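Hi F.,

I've been meaning to write this up properly since the lab meeting, where we talked about keeping a consistent format for the predictions we share between groups. The idea is simple: the sequence comes first, exactly as it goes in, then the structure tokens exactly as they come out, then a line or two of notes. No screenshots and no reformatting. I'm using this chain as the first example so we have something concrete to point to.
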Amino acid sequence: MGKSKRNSPKPGGNRAQRLAERKAALEQAARTVTRPFEGLAAECDLVALREFVPSATGALPLVASVAAEREVVLGTVLPGAVAALVRAGEPPVGYVGAQTQFAGADPGADLAAAILWTQSAEPGDSLNSVESIAGGPKLTDVLDPAARLELTVHQDFDWWVPEGVTPDPQVAATIEQAKQAVMPSARLALGADSIGAAWWVDAGEKAHVRWVRPEDEDVLMAALARLHAAGGLHLGEGSRFAGSFRTHGLLVPVFDLDPEQHPSEWEKPAAEFEARLSEALAAGTELTAAERRSRDGLRSRQVTLR
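Output, unedited:
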């Protein structure tokens, strides 16, 4: 007897469509790069700009072979959430977006491709989406791996329009609409020796510090557990450890804060916390029974963004 076709999906049917979508999702997951900005001193800020910073810009530290052509500015999000554009001027300036409408499997390589596109595109051109080619340039081939980002944090999107230019009413309305979604944000200034990127945001009833850390997750989690067991997992009075999330291969501890305090008021407590954390990291991953219980509790409050 021949095989039954009862369980075979009917071409064009709902089940066939679901199976095709599942297959495509699995293929996308297999291609996804877990830590796309690894190898860059700016890794933690790149993750922050891509995931939760509302509005910020910074000139990218391009390698010499690229920098000789045209300056490129990284923005959190560009008009229309496009991948890149070239602003007319003398000279023209390229802009690339950290948060884009379409996300590929390797955000680092996609960003590299967008940067390279700005070098040959005409002023006024924009690139809706980009998907890097396997084996193509990596972000470490385009950006200086040792350079950090010099960022300007904005509380609006007025930077979408060149200085001295009056936007037309439709563009002005779009900027005003985008501005309404911006939560006041700041990058904590913790000194040149600080590790990672600590970002403050006022979310209304609460403020938060999201601290993107570059350490191996297990090593960092052991250190956080050691601090938690000792009562040191906080940023001082008016703060509370809220949990952590994983994104782009990194762990991001989050602290709830008193929103009445200015972000600069948290810089000293944050520096003191980082000193405690450094000691905890240096102690290794061997934990006491109480510290292991703390670690298990902290892990139960983790979420993964991607």
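Notes:
Residues 23-30 have pLDDT under 50 and may be disordered.
The CA atoms of residues 36 and 108 lie 5 Å apart.

If this format works for you, I'll send the rest the same way.

G.
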